[in-house]
Amino acid sequence: MASFTPANPEFEARVRDSFARQRAMATIGARLASVRAGEVEIELAYREELTQQHRFIHGGIVGMLADNARGYAAFTLMPADASVVSVEYKVNFLAPAEGERLVARARVLRPGRTLIVAEAEVVAIKDGRETQVAACLATVMTLHGRDDGPRG
Amino acid sequence: MASFTPANPEFEARVRDSFARQRAMATIGARLASVRAGEVEIELAYREELTQQHRFIHGGIVGMLADNARGYAAFTLMPADASVVSVEYKVNFLAPAEGERLVARARVLRPGRTLIVAEAEVVAIKDGRETQVAACLATVMTLHGRDDGPRG
Amino acid sequence: MASFTPANPEFEARVRDSFARQRAMATIGARLASVRAGEVEIELAYREELTQQHRFIHGGIVGMLADNARGYAAFTLMPADASVVSVEYKVNFLAPAEGERLVARARVLRPGRTLIVAEAEVVAIKDGRETQVAACLATVMTLHGRDDGPRG
Amino acid sequence: MASFTPANPEFEARVRDSFARQRAMATIGARLASVRAGEVEIELAYREELTQQHRFIHGGIVGMLADNARGYAAFTLMPADASVVSVEYKVNFLAPAEGERLVARARVLRPGRTLIVAEAEVVAIKDGRETQVAACLATVMTLHGRDDGPRG
Prior knowledge:
The structure is a homotetramer. By secondary structure, chain A is an alpha+beta fold. In chain A, 22% of the residues lie in helices and 41% in strands.
């Protein structure tokens, strides 16, 4: 597994600050669990408001957690004057998202100057036992010289 | 463009009923705009609670709308005793999701007995002008002999 | 459907020259059938040397045609001093690649300065009848200031 | 990492026999390097006939190796009366495919009865040093009761 040297030593504070400004994460109740260079974990406790018709967490929520964890895993390696944008992502669902909570774990596979390839897995934890519910592969882009604050 | 003969003439009622049981759609404020054989549209009005750090609708929400529209586009063609599950999806982001509302439009590309391939686009509407914000390609599975109600 | 203004009026000659230098295309017997701004078609006649174990054209060959058509569809819109690189692609197989020939048709969905999103379909033609065998969605990158010739 | 119990103890012979009938693999010069339950490696020595315009191995060939390795990794877990079909795959390119040879390594992530999710990496080996050139995520389908021989 690769180890990374972040361009910005303040990367954790920067990721936490950006995450805190994502209203969508507060709305679904997601929490930034850990931030390391090239690796981010996001957790979500089960909530009935996030379910699909079979009472499992909606697959779109699973994809959203994975997308966000990957974006921030990439962001940890970006310079202080850059912002992050999702180019594309792909999710395979392996099992229903059933359990007390979900954890999305993302890590950077290859940090290019402009494009960063990252992967993520999402696991569901039920009675202390983990089941992988999704596997994801994605491309994230560094926008150099663009602040991470609100646009426009 | 293909035209489809649905196996279940009551497909629209069935899709609307299933959508209504998806708590996650109510939570984000999404609305089933249209249901035709092999085609579904879901709309979402802009809400600050769904934004990312630049105040655009979160990409994960965009992916979620597309995923759901595709799942239900596939569901329109399934027999009355089947339920639907997302196998995988892929989203490319084309532009920030900026505007008064988003529309996810999905259509079935190929309806197999077990697997259905579907595509979706998500557009943002701002001052009456549409911009495509995402393109999606996905696989949906028919679970024959499985009710669409809550599991377990 | 979008219409594009290519940055380089000589785009067709440039695509044809680059394609001619792809030894892999000659090896599999593929032919550049048409080149328009933002759109490229590649054809391949059925050859037993390209089959998988069921005597259909190998899925990897189908993916390769689609990947290449998309790359060149994007290349038609690039300036004269840029070269093209595939970032990622996704293929869904809709039917076995059975017939006298395959045609991969690609078109640009969104031409960004750095990243270009393109889609492709691959059809098999059998007894004059077309069947779509694959749907593809991909990201292509423009390398500004990089010649299209051999590296190193 | 998961360990798998194959349904057919003769899985290696079956995979080798099927691979040997893939004319496309002989055409590109690929070799089945290893076959274990849920894991397959395919190797390819560099050949100028497989290059793109920059003299690297064509990205479509890289995708083809990964697709095939994944298909056979899944096939190792299938019962003796089943055949294998690629549903979809996604490839991210991490670096140019430059070196003396490529190795595609695939492993099953989740073996379902009908659908098998598998991942693959492709590495290029140059002067004894490995560089990952592609990451892949795919869905493979088991066709129960379908022989692996040529289709009629």
